[in-house]
Amino acid sequence: MTYDLSDTLAEHYEGMSPALSELLHTLTPGVAGKFIRTQGQTQGISVTDMLDGGIRFIDFRIMFTPGPDKVFGHEDWYCLHGCESRLKAIQYLQQVKTWLEAHPKEVVVLWASRHGNPETTGTDQYPGTTPAQRQKFFGQVQDVFGGLLFNSSQRLNETSISSLQASNQRVIWFAADYAESTKSSPLAVDARSIDNQLLSSGRGSSALGSWELEAID
User: Fold this and answer.
1) C-alpha neighbours within 13 Å on the C-beta side of residue 115
2) Is 14 in a helix, a strand, or coil?
3) Most CB atoms closer than 10 Å: which of 33, 132, 176, 217?
4) What is the pTM of this model?
5) Hey, is 28 helix, strand or coil?
6) How far apart are CA 198 and CA 141, in angstroms?
7) Measuring CA to CA, how many Å separate 179 from each of 8, 186, 204?
């Protein structure tokens, strides 16, 4: 949700020590926050406008962090891309739910992770968090979408769009850290099934290399 970033760097920023990211979380609203925000902004329209425009796959980056402009106090799940979002992550999902209610034949796919890496788990995926905190967020996701969530006890790659429409299971939730974050819930899909070419994950480079060899052959 980079169209709605604050001027506050999210804690546990990728590749940065916890102490440094905590310090920058405190300092960025007043020092360089706007610059960092503009560097991280990759979207210029709201999630509702994205859906209106035909986007059906949303890369939903989240982290458990104090809210924007807060040095101490209550932590919650916010979207992030360098800086954290102005609103809590669940509020953007509520906007998706509202859109789905107005478009009863549409199917939306969301992929929740911290940095687009489907492989990492636990605190490698979400530093400084507990399984209970991660599972509580997924509980909020279930509260928002309810029966709209796809039940993965049926195989997704064997399920047609018309079947999803007929069952009204029109939200597919891919979860990084699937086992701990969702307790292996059938209402989520393990994000490791996504073929994401993220070089820093350790698998993207080899996958890309194989593709290149096949293409040459």
Assistant:
1) 21
2) coil
3) 176
4) 0.79
5) coil
6) 26
7) 30, 11, 22
| 27-36 LR contacts (CB < 8 Å, sep 24+) | 28/83, 29/68, 29/69, 33/6, 33/7, 33/8, 33/9, 33/83, 34/7, 36/7, 36/9, 36/82, 36/83
Cα 123 to the chain's mean position, in Å?
15
Q: Which helix (H) or strand (E) segment is 7 a member of?
A: strand 5-9
Q: Where are the domains of the chain?
A: 2-216
- Please list the pLDDT of the chain residue by residue as tens digits (217 residues): 666 677 676 666 665 555 655 555 555 555 556 656 566 556 678 999 999 999 999 999 999 998 886 655 588 999 986 788 889 999 999 999 999 999 999 999 999 999 889 999 999 999 999 999 999 999 999 999 999 999 999 999 999 999 999 999 999 999 999 999 999 999 999 999 988 766 654 444 333 333 232 333 3
Nearest to 85 by CA among 73, 95, 77: 77
Tokens encoding 119: 């492989």
62 bridge partner residues: 79
Cα separation values, 45 from 95, 98, 138, Å: 13, 17, 26
